[in-house]
Amino acid sequence: MTPVPYPEAAVRRYRDSGLWGTATIATEFHRIARAHPDRDAVVALDGRLTFAELDERTDLLAAGLAGLGLRPGDPVLFQVTNRLGAVVAWYGVLKAGLVPVATLAAHRAHEIGDISRRVGAVAHLVDAGVRNFDLVGFAEATRRDHPTLRHVLVLGDDPRGVPVDSLGRDRDPAGARAVVERIQTGIDPDDVAAHQLSGGTTGVPKVIPRLHAEYWYNAAEYARSWGWTCGSRIAHLIPVIHNAGIVCAVHAAHSVGGCLVLGSPDLDESLPLMAREAATDVLLGHGHYRAVDHPGFAAATRAVERIVLSGSKVPPALFDALEARGFWIGQLFGMGEGLFLTTRPGAPRAARLTTVGTPLSTLDEVRILEPGTESPVGDGETGELCARGPYTLRGYLDAPEHNARAFTSDGFYRTGDLAAFVTIDGGRYLSIEGRIKDLINRGGEKINAEEVELILLRHPRITAAAVVPMPDPRLGERTCAYLVVDGEELALPAVQEHFAALGVATFKWPERLEHLPEIPRTLVGKTDKKRLAADIARKVAGGGATRAPDRRADVPESAHPIRRAGRPARRAVPVPGAGPDRDAT
């Protein structure tokens, strides 16, 4: 299957501007490794490698993969966790000219079967050390029922597959380097380097082809945007074989000769690693927003210069708490499809707190369009975020019908995110305002769930929130808020008083609360709203729903008793900045 190409004129522009290079990712990495041979390339929980060691080891692995009969262009499913071998395998597969397909360790037959058939996967790389699930057995079963899968490759000790850790170890390093160079000469920098997966919450994820030149540029520009150097030590705790992991951690750190400090989602494991390795930068996704409360956080961040927040809505209290400790805080909004928005050094505090900043590249093009049209909206108005540029895809793989809906007539990708341009201190920044379809229809009034969630997060005791529609026989839908709170559960009147104090229109107030220890997530890390909506629908059908009195629906906003004469109501200003969970990336 051939990916949707970038227009020739765009390719010339990106290359003539010096954005796209003329080498493959494997060649780019080899150049960096030769320039920084003795520096740490990766330090993980299970080992470490210098650039010279990683370069040689991945040469040997590539030669070993070629010896198995795998040919350039063959797709390889990656289903591994954050360990040293995952990074070795990533570069080894690229050096062999193979195409990594970045699935998640949590994917199962529904996702893996569909994805592997769509790309024609030839090999399946799995982790033998995953707790509570036999990924090796799963891969074996998948292979038996699959038309193209021939090999099960294994990280760790398991005799049922080909051991990646020892593959190619018996070869001569110079000979392995010659094999890699021969393979790389046959690969064009504008060929597909890897397949990432879309972050959609429904159906099986769509396949996103990423090309060598644009994918490496995406990462190198990200590193430049934060001012990273060969002395930077980049901590990464979320899944590494995912777009955020590859762009923001593996490739970005290595593009400048920096070190990847590869932890895991478990803070008890990762914070001591960060402390020991003197991490200078860390990306915190929503799952780690409470890391600041961990007893090991202070020691882990003693050398940290920058903390980037991404993946979900950023509570102002978190921003303030981190800033009070002396950290520089920025935000990232990115997607596997390409576009990155960041609040880089130099952005004013208000922009870093309330927006996701500006596009990563000087040649990124961003439009805010009226949803479903190609008509732009004005600054300050909310519309659909659409983009094209030097690292944003021009079409999903083998999805012509979906592509017809997902792109404008002139090639702008419709992200499905609601956004607005805002001006702060004379600068123009992007504010993420929610998702187009994340709406509650309350008697004809459309309520943006993201907006309500952002307002909920301004309550000092609410640490996470997800808003979903609750079936109602009279109005069709009402608003149910699932909350994670500090301390005792909140009563509905207390939350409504919070909304009233902010001057929020009464029809937007939550009408039922459900408390949870944590907000459920889909396999790609998004809030699992389908599950929450099904949960509240069952409770309503069972007669367990409680809600605020109906009278609020009929009270004009101007007559609300909370508003006092002579004191205008405060306008609720959403705290944008990490709209829907992406990769998060």
UniProtKB/TrEMBL annotation:
It comes from the Bacteria. Gene3D superfamilies: 3.30.300.30, N-terminal domain of ligase-like (3.40.50.12780). Residues 540-585 are annotated as: Disordered. Residues 548-557 have a biased composition (Basic and acidic residues). Residues 561-570 have a biased composition (Basic residues). It holds the Pfam family AMP-binding_C. Residues 29-397 form the AMP-dependent synthetase/ligase domain. Residues 451-526 form the AMP-binding enzyme C-terminal domain. PANTHER family: LONG-CHAIN-FATTY-ACID--COA LIGASE (PTHR43767), NONRIBOSOMAL PEPTIDE SYNTHASE PES1 (EUROFUNG)-RELATED (PTHR43767:SF1). This is AMP-binding protein. It comes from Pseudonocardia kongjuensis.
